[in-house]
Amino acid sequence: MKHLLSAKDLSHAEAVALLDTAEAMAATQSRAVKKLPTLRGKTVVNMFFEDSTRTRLSFEAAAKRLSADVINFSGKGSSLSKGESLKDTAQTLQAMGADAVVVRHSACGAAHLLAHAGWIDVPVLNAGDGTHQHPTQALLDAMTLRRWYNSATHSGDDGAPAAPGSDLDGAKLVIVGDVLHSRVARSNVDLATTLGAQVTLVAPPTLLPIGMEDWPCQVHYDLDETIAEVQPDAIMMLRVQRERMSAAGGGFFPSPQEYSRQYGLDATRRAALPEHAIIMHPGPMNRGLEITAQAADDPRSRVVEQVANGVSVRMACLYLLLADEGNQL
Ligand code: NCD
């Protein structure tokens, strides 16, 4: 694997290897000194052309914990506003000695273009391209789900995670909300099914993309019926992406209240979930819209753990793409 562009590109074995490496990274993060010397002398460039809090900080923390130097580039305040192209920007950064480029961009395919256009010759990690893919998010979600699922299924309780099993065989994941605009949903459908999970998407018809017949998942429109029928092990609430909706002229649902009533996770729906089910959200959350504050802060919520796992997963990705041969953890 030279780049990490899409969750779809990962085989079962590659996904498991990444998740196992992320677990090994996580184990180093409870030490008093968290830093590992693995990527000393390497430079990771974070190119964020779209807003981000978690993903950008997480990639930066991951690279620094592995002792790499980090250069942060944000679209705002750069020569992009003077019309500089992605190609020129990328070449400038490579000329400054980048050993890997992490890119987030509003255009679908931007990471693929950077990796394959021949402009630069270093590993490219996709940190989100438009509504298309966000592979490290899918990996951190799989890590969160796998840890918990294996502890719950193997030890019969849902307390502290036991040693994680290798995959998500039979796990039932329900993903709810703005699927249309969500690279997180697409990436999760790809990766979770590769790992053996059963994925069900729930959304209003206006928030589902066309061409879903090809997706390896079930699709439903009614959340209450889905919870009752599927009895999910995990429910993942998606952010209502209002910025992409207003750019498209709006009109995706009648009102925020109506959306919350039909598709929001509240106390009643929380109570209808199986007792063991966990609650996930990629963040940033619209509290009061797709999830109530009470559900977001529920003891079963894994939102904060997802963020922590994001650092371990990105350490694993950088390590596997960048460490020199023989450079052990
Ligand atoms: C997601 C993204 O940017 O795609 N957030 C994230 O990476 N933590 C989801 C979102 O913005 O809703």
From TrEMBL:
Aspartate/ornithine carbamoyltransferase carbamoyl-P binding domain mapped to chain residues: 2-146
SUPFAM superfamilies tied to this protein: Aspartate/ornithine carbamoyltransferase
GO molecular function: amino acid binding; aspartate carbamoyltransferase activity
Functional pathway: Pyrimidine metabolism; UMP biosynthesis via de novo pathway; (S)-dihydroorotate from bicarbonate: step 2/3
InterPro entries, alphabetized: Asp/Orn_carbamoyltranf_P-bd (IPR006132), Asp/Orn_carbamoylTrfase (IPR006130), Asp/Orn_carbamoylTrfase_sf (IPR036901), Asp_carbamoyltransf (IPR002082), Asp_carbamoyltransf_Asp/Orn-bd (IPR006131)
All residue ranges annotated as the Aspartate/ornithine carbamoyltransferase Asp/Orn-binding domain in the record: 170-321
Keyword Ubl conjugation in annotation: no
Protein's job: Catalyzes the condensation of carbamoyl phosphate and aspartate to form carbamoyl aspartate and inorganic phosphate, the committed step in the de novo pyrimidine nucleotide biosynthesis pathway.
Protein name, entry field: Aspartate carbamoyltransferase
Species this protein is from: Actinomyces graevenitzii C83
Gene: pyrB
